[in-house]
Design a protein that fits this description.
Bound molecules: flavin-adenine dinucleotide
Radius of gyration: 24 Å
Largest sheet: 5 strands, parallel
Number of domains: 3
Distance between the termini: 71 Å
Number of helices: 22
CATH architecture of the largest domain: Orthogonal Bundle
CATH topology of the largest domain: DNA Cyclobutane Dipyrimidine Photolyase, subunit A, domain 3
């Protein structure tokens, strides 16, 4: 009787899991799960300790849920993706599984790995079936009239909305029915893997693992915070966003589940209705958009800019400036608060992600790829498509519809989004006693009397830096 293996990757859940359902339907002889531990590849992809630790804890929670469904989970070491074909063929042979089911991953290396695994399984008389899962609409199913991938968010969103409104979201799938347990032991998930340390307990506590937690967050957000999302989502001192990103990045909850719940709360509407809910749904569409870009323009996942002409920007090469930015010692309070929030929590508020990224690329004129890597190594929600999309948007090398002169002033950003300095004081203790006005004004911050607080002087003058940046982009376009 047919047996199947479900190969889990960035879909660490049992609810709304099409691959589990397919395997349960097609394999009366038994369903087992497998996850490949690939620390070598994760390091190459710049995964950091927070993400890896969250992954292992999520895996442990998944293993528990699968046991309750009668599905054992195998852990197989395949240090790099190149080791995956052999590892999976060996396991499939041992378990006599002729079908391996997974959800499609969209990144270049992951797609190459999957092709090789598919070929190796086929050569061994077995089959790999990969199903769509990561986005609500498959990234290549939304196209312009000319049959190309979108490059600008607003028309993409319009096309996406029309498609989902016409076809409906569909009900997320429940977990499959529990089966008679197989006499196979589920393997213990390790607490750490080679080359990755366990993050401090304070950070770990912020991100409890598991599907139940993801659903709790979703419910709490929709009940208590979604209504005010439109006004609060830009204020980093308030808990105004869902903090679901790590769960979405590893598929602990599906985007479809989030969308269906938000639409239900908005009386079935994706557009219109409650303004907060409409805005939140738009954020889910940003997530879809950056995956669409990744699939349509794969150069972005190879370290290349979306706007090819920006390859010529002469980024500065200043190791010391980069180090100060990484450590949150730039002397610009709002920027440092964001960078320190990242170091302490593994997460950074979206407004600060934009401000710190613009500061690195525009004020310091340092290459966005350094920032992208730093974020990836520290974020618990590190995700190639969204991180790359966010960085390239901020650096004006990406899909932003605005021309290259969108340059945030980090001082006025702080004044606007943290007017009373609550967020800055939370993360920059040196400035706890500083007057609020000084937090948003370089001259006041450096005036006599504040130097003894032990906070560094601003490393760059924004006015000068802005001109320098404009000149660098003009030059890259052949205009200077
Ligand atoms: C420079 C930069 C780097 C980023 N890196 C990442 C990353 O590695 N991983 C990541 O998940 N997000 C990234 N983002 C997007 C965004 O900052 C986070 O998704 C968001 O802050 C997560 O918080 P939340 O779950 O409370 O979001 P909410 O505001 O509650 O939004 C709900 C969900 O929508 C998605 N989302 C929201 N905003 C965006 C966006 N701008 N782009 C894509 N998806 C979005 C996320 O999945 C998020 O969990 C980055 C943004 C920038 C500007």
């Amino acid at each position: 009787m047919r047996r199947a293996l479900v190969w889990f990757r960035s879909d660490l859940r049992t609810e709304d899991h099409p691959a589990l359902h397919l395997a349960s339907r097609e394999a009366p002889g038994g369903v087992e799960g497998v996850f490949l531990l690939s620390p070598g590849q994760w390091r190459e992809h710049d995964w950091g300790d927070p993400k890896t630790d969250f992954l292992l804890r999520s895996l442990r929670s998944l293993a528990g849920s699968l046991v309750r469904l009668g599905i054992p989970l195998h852990l197989v070491r395949a240090d790099r993706f190149a080791d995956a074909p052999e590892a999976l063929v060996r396991l499939a042979r041992r378990l006599e599984a002729d079908l391996v089911v997974c959800h499609r991953e969209l990144e270049v290396n992951e797609r190459r790995r999957d092709r090789r695994v598919g070929d190796a399984l086929a050569a061994d008389g077995r089959r790999l079936v990969s199903l769509h899962d990561q986005t609500i609409v498959p990234p290549d199913e939304i196209q312009t009239r000319q049959g190309t991938f979108y490059t600008v968010f607003t028309p993409f969103r319009r096309a996406w909305m029309e498609r989902v409104e016409a076809g409906g979201i569909g009900d997320p799938l429940p977990a499959p029915e529990a089966r008679e347990p197989l006499s196979v032991e589920t393997e213990a998930v390790p607490h750490s893997v080679a080359g990755f340390a366990r993050p401090p307990a304070g950070l770990v506590k912020l991100w409890p693992a598991g599907e139940a937690e993801a659903h709790r967050r979703l419910e709490r957000f929709l009940e208590s915070h979604a209504g005010g999302y439109g006004e609060n989502r830009d204020i980093p001192s308030v808990e105004g966003t869902s903090a679901l990103s790590p769960y979405l990045a590893l598929g602990v909850v599906s985007a479809r589940t989030c969308l269906a719940a938000a639409a239900a709360t908005n009386r079935g509407r994706l557009r219109g209705g409650d303004e907060g809910l409409e805005t939140w749904i738009t954020e889910l569409v940003w997530r879809e958009f950056y995956r669409h870009v990744l699939v349509g323009y794969p150069r972005v996942s190879k370290g290349r800019p979306f706007k090819e002409e920006t390859e010529a920007v002469a980024w500065r090469d200043e190791e010391e400036d980069l180090a100060r930015w990484r450590e949150g010692r730039t002397g610009v309070p709002f920027v440092d608060a964001g960078l320190r929030q990242l170091a302490a929590t593994g997460w950074m508020h979206n407004r600060l992600r934009m401000v710190t990224a613009q500061f690195l690329t525009k004020d310091l004129l340092l290459d966005w790829r350094f920032g992208e890597r730093h974020f990836m190594r520290h974020l618990v929600d590190g995700d190639l498509a969204s991180n790359n999309g966010g960085w390239q948007w901020s650096a004006s090398t990406g899909t932003d519809a605005a021309p290259y002169f969108r340059i945030f002033n980090p001082w006025t950003q702080g004044k606007r989004f943290d007017p009373d300095g609550t967020f800055i004081r939370r993360w920059v203790p040196e400035l706890r006693e500083a007057p609020t006005k000084a937090l948003h004004d370089a001259d006041k911050l450096t005036a006599p009397g504040l130097a003894e607080l032990g906070y560094p002087r601003p490393m760059v003058d924004h006015g000068m830096a802005r001109e320098r940046c404009l000149e660098a982009f003009r030059h890259a376009r052949g205009g200077g």
